[in-house]
Amino acid sequence: MHSESEHDKVGGLGMKPRQRIMCAKSGFALVITIGLLMVTVPTMGQHQQPLTNVDAISMVKSGLSEAVIIDAIKASDSNFDTSAKALIALQKASVPPKIMQAMIDAGARKKSAMAPAAQAETTAPTTPAQPMLPPGASSAMPAGAAANPAATPAVAPAAGGGVMFMLLSGNTKQPLAAEKLQVAPTQAKESTLQALALDNALNQVLQAGVQDVATRVAARTKLGGPSAGVTQAGNVIGGLFTKKSKPTFTYAWALPGATSSSAVAAASGFEVTYAGIPGINPDDYEPHIVKLSPTKDQGWRLVGAAKATEELAQSTSPTWPVYSSFIEDTVPLQIKKAASGDVIVTPTSQLTAGEYAIVLRPVVKSKKFAGTELTNGQGEGLVFDSASSFSVK
User: Using CA atoms, how far apart are residues 30 and 253, in angstroms rounded to an integer?
Assistant: First the structure.
């Protein structure tokens, strides 16, 4: 006697009615699960896009409050461009300084989070090799990192082929640290260092951290061309700087830190040696002492500034007579040339309290430089960008 009908055997593929019901329920559940996944996965991907400069501008234009935008920046992944030109573009788009600061902080946090991972990938057990620097130049601060003047290392003078700074005290000579000036562009029109030190845009650029920022910006963008959009590092927001005429920027030379680590007497003398630098005629330069202007946030000291088009700043041939209209506060000196590239300078009167630097300047003010050498501290720019700062109490 058969327990199942022929219909059950054929129509049910040998399964009992209860088995057929369970199988149908399982199949329906599988269809529902697949459908939910098809809806959920694209939605999740949409929320993984990092915030960019365009998003920041859109939030400002939409009327959101500063607090809301800053909270959104802190809570979201981001890929902001905080280069010099991008900060200027943000300012022109009416993005408030507090929001720009939040964008800069977000970039700094991202860099800090990435640093341990990068160190973990390093297989060498010994101390990592330091990047090669021009003789007499100090390590430049990484681009996009918040300024930390206290952590900026001083570099002792290099023997042979570099610029050496010495403090003269009686018959003794004391080495002074050689430093590399950093260059930052701004659209400020101020004609004195004191006024330029108060410029908000320049303070934003310096606070973000610069390493040859003028050249990096110039190399990635061309004013007057079509909208470039966003490049690998975010770059400048497309179209904001598209102009028919080439604007003039003010390029500021600066040193990090509110004060120098070297304190000297008000009546000190100095010796500067700069012979033997490849490709440099030492007779083309002479030492100067300049008074520095601290920035508004006390994080940097301005050494000098010059106005120029971006075309001059990114030139690879000597076309920029940078010192012909250079802004700096020079100190009257007595100059004694001991030999070619070996000069002793002494202030004609005691220095007042403040921050100073010894620099090298062209004897002929109309001397032309390649813009990329000035902003990168290479070639003739190595000499122009060398300095040694000191404080007079």
Answer: 67
**Angle ∠(369,370,374) on CA atoms, nearest 5:** 80
Residues 393, 353: contact at Cβ < 8 Å? yes
Query: CA-based angle 270:329:182, to the nearest 5?
Result: 80
Contacts of 274 (CB under 8 A, 6+ apart): 162, 163, 164, 280, 282, 285, 341, 360, 383, 386
* Measured distance CA(322)–CA(312) in Å, rounded: 9
CB 377: neighbour CB atoms within 10 A? Answer: 25
**Order of strands across the sheet that contains 172-176:** 172-176, 164-169, 269-273, 342-347, 333-339
Amino acid, res. 1: M
End-to-end CA distance of the chain: 115
Amino acid at 160: G
Question: Which contiguous run of DSSP H or E holds residue 219?
Answer: helix 213-220
Using alpha carbons, select from 143, 119, 139 the residue that is nearest to residue 215. 143
Contact 366, 312 (CB under 8 A): no
pLDDT tens track for 328-349: 999 999 999 999 999 999 999 9
Give me the average pLDDT of each 10-residue run along the chain (393 residues).
Answer: 46 52 54 46 54 92 90 90 82 86 84 59 40 35 37 38 87 91 88 90 75 40 31 32 66 93 93 92 97 90 94 94 96 95 95 96 97 91 95 94
Nearest residue to 73 via CA among 65, 63, 85: 65
Cβ count within 10 A of residue 141 = 20
Q: Shortest CA distance to 184 belongs to which of 123, 106, 253? A: 253
φ/ψ of 176, rounded to 5, equals -115, 150
Strands 386-392 and 263-264: parallel
Distance of alpha carbon 325 from alpha carbon 307, whole angstroms: 8
pLDDT at 22: 57
Cβ–Cβ < 8 Å for 215, 312: no
pTM greater than 0.90? no
Query: For tokens 């979201």, what's the residue?
Result: 76
Distance CA 345, CA 289 (A): 8
Burial of 357 (0-12, 13-18, 19+ CB in 10 A): buried
Give residue 389's region: left, alpha or beta (phi > 0; psi -120 to 50): beta
